[in-house]
Design brief:
Strand content: 15-25%
CATH architecture: Beta Barrel
Number of helices: 3
CATH class: Mainly Beta
Helix content: 10-25%
Strand order of the largest sheet: 1-2-7-6-3-8
Radius of gyration: 18 Å
Number of strands: 8
Structural class: alpha+beta
CATH topology: Elongation Factor Tu (Ef-tu), domain 3
Shape: globular
Distance between the termini: 47 Å
CATH superfamily: YaeB-like
Length: 181
């Protein structure tokens, strides 16, 4: 190993700041492979639409409660969390069909938002509904019940607003399917 590779052996330790309390308890939305592709696609979209309506609570450790001061003034926050039920086998996956949709071209993990990644640190922009002391109520968090929270950040236009982003065709198709265009 040369000096240029030394950063690859750095061990990073994270301490959770809290956990997610949610009705979501399953790792993935599983469907039988024999379901026709157009029905599978609609079931996947329906599941993701449902998840975007789920109300979850972010239970922040009481030691960090004062770090939340002022967060209630924001309408949206970025939640950084760890998918604790993701197997080490799934962390070895290198390519996937985005959202499990076989109608979309297979992509490298880093080109997707799949939770199956070498370091499964996941982010989600969610609507902040309210704060009650050390508990944040949010809408649309795609994290399972018990997922450890790593960080919370406010969504801001100057940090999160990308001017004129470009996307591959398959993302444009997902946006169209979710009526985001």
């Amino acid at each position: 190993m040369n000096d240029n590779d030394s950063h690859l052996t750095l061990e990073i330790c994270l301490k959770p700041i809290g956990y997610v309390k949610s009705e979501l308890t399953e790792l993935t939305f599983r469907m039988k492979q024999d379901i026709p592709p157009d029905i599978r696609k609609e079931q996947i979209l329906s599941n993701h639409r449902r998840i975007k309506e789920v109300i979850s609570e972010l239970i922040i450790h009481p030691d960090y409660e004062e770090l939340l001061d002022g967060i209630e003034a924001f309408s949206h926050i970025v939640v950084v969390f760890w998918p604790h039920l993701l197997s080490s086998e799934n962390r070895q996956i290198k390519k996937v069909h985005p959202m499990g949709r076989k109608d979309l071209p297979i992509q490298g993990i880093f080109a997707t938002r799949s939770p199956a990644r070498p370091n499964p640190v996941l982010i989600s922009n969610v609507h902040l509904l309210e704060r009650q002391k050390n508990v944040l109520k949010v809408k649309g968090l795609e994290a399972l019940n018990g997922s450890p929270l790593i960080d919370i950040k406010p969504v801001t236009r100057f940090n999160d607003g990308v001017k004129s982003p470009t996307f591959p065709d398959w993302i444009n198709q997902i946006n169209k399917d979710f009526e985001l265009d």
